[in-house]
Amino acid sequence: MRVIAGTAKGRRLYAPKGMETRPITAKIKEALFNIWQDRIPGSDFLDLFAGSGSIGIEALSRGADHVAFVDKSRKAVEMIKKNLEICGFRSGYDIYQDDVFRRIGWFEKNEAVFDIIYLDPPFTEGQIFYSVIQRLSNAKLLKRDGIFAIRTRKELEVPDRIEQLKKMRQKVYGISSVHFYGRAEG
Known about the structure:
An eight-stranded mixed sheet has the order 3-2-1-4-5-8-7-6. It has helices at 26-36, 54-61, 74-87, 100-109, 128-139; strands at 44-48, 66-71, 93-97, 114-119, 142-153, 161-162, 165-173, 176-183. The protein has one domain: Rossmann fold (3-Layer(aba) Sandwich). By secondary structure, it is of the alpha/beta class. Helix 3 (74-87) links the parallel strand 2 and strand 3. It starts with 25 loop residues before the first helix and ends with a strand. It is globular, with a radius of gyration of 15 Å.
């Protein structure tokens, strides 16, 4: 797994050993950043269920102003720190070892807003997808023209609209789907 583009292009990233994380494939990561390419420079980016941190690190490499990484696993947080060091990033990010739902509440309380929110919850916890989308929909963490993306198993049905979020598109990559949401009008 490597950084695809930007200031850290080509740097090798590491993932925690074991089955707790599913590193994203280069194909999916490249497709996501092709979609987001005009939004990344100068953005505030939230990487939830961050795992190795490869998505947030790619955002930093491509010019995001700030990335917030959230993962409850100590091993994942250690790996994110290692990967940031390998890439030479010393600022422009915060790392939170915390439950995603608790951290969403903290962001909300502190009025944090993001241009891009990316989630990659564990495939083994089926109900978590609906719960986290519902929670984010009501949290108002997404800037007015922001984009929220969640990776799921391709066969998982995700609603076209949940509260304040409306699905803009869905892309299928192998066994995964990525669902893209924006704020609903009205």
